[in-house]
Design a protein that fits this description.
Strand order of the largest sheet: 1-2-3-4
Number of helices: 7
Shape: elongated
Number of domains: 2
Radius of gyration: 18 Å
Helix content: 25-40%
Strand content: 5-15%
Low-confidence stretches: 13-17
Order of helices and strands: HHHHHHEEEEH
Structural class: alpha+beta
Mean pLDDT: 83
Distance between the termini: 34 Å
Largest sheet: 4 strands, antiparallel
């Protein structure tokens, strides 16, 4: 069955309510605020890292053995150097203060979800990751496509993305993400969403 149709039948959602965390919409503003002076074609490119060159970011900076390792934030040097102490010689941004924890958390989530550059125009490589979650790292249930059911017992496979007080955001294998309110889900799926979101 077509994934979009399956989701519609399951949850009665007419249109996407959310999208994946991506570089263009979520991470780029952080980079412009904290890293632009040293890592952009607009200002200066140091370390061969141009944060405003989206093709280069996608093709060369994101990969299993690259600066940014999709699905594997713990081994992504891009994030690692931002988490170092400000006195460390490798700390970034070198001429600025440490990024706030909430921004580091968003970057970490972006990498964990596949480090997609533009969720509206994902590349074949990005779609492949979104489909099977292959990253070369240990399996994380948050990166797997799990079974979710509604109150009528209809079922789909989707990946957990984030949790709010009243809804869970689920990503289909085609990269589309949807906000699903708890009142549409079975008790088991609500419990799964809260478990993955770290809530009791």
């Amino acid at each position: 069955m077509n994934p979009r149709l399956a989701l519609t039948l399951l949850l009665t959602l007419p249109a996407p309510a959310a999208r994946a965390v991506d570089y263009v919409g979520d991470i780029l503003p952080i980079m412009k605020e904290h890293c632009w002076n040293c890592h952009s074609n607009e200002k200066e490119v140091k370390g061969n890292l141009a944060l405003d060159d989206f093709d280069e970011m996608r093709d060369y900076q994101v990969g299993k053995f690259s600066l940014i390792r999709p699905g594997n934030p713990a081994e992504s040097q891009f994030l690692e150097v931002m988490k170092l102490g400000e006195g460390d010689k490798d700390f970034m941004p070198r001429k600025g203060a440490a990024l706030p924890n909430e921004k580091l958390a968003l970057i970490e989530k972006w990498i964990a979800e596949g480090a997609v550059i533009d969720a509206e125009k994902p590349s074949e490589k990005e779609l492949a990751f979104l489909k099977d979650g292959s990253s070369g790292s240990a399996k994380d249930p948050k990166l797997e496509f799990l079974k979710w059911t509604n109150k009528e017992g209809k079922e789909i496979e989707a990946r957990f993305m984030r949790l709010s007080d009243t809804a869970v955001t689920l990503m289909m294998k085609n990269g589309k993400a949807y906000d699903v309110t708890f009142d549409k889900l079975s008790d088991e799926s609500v419990a799964l969403a809260k478990k993955l979101g770290g809530k009791p």
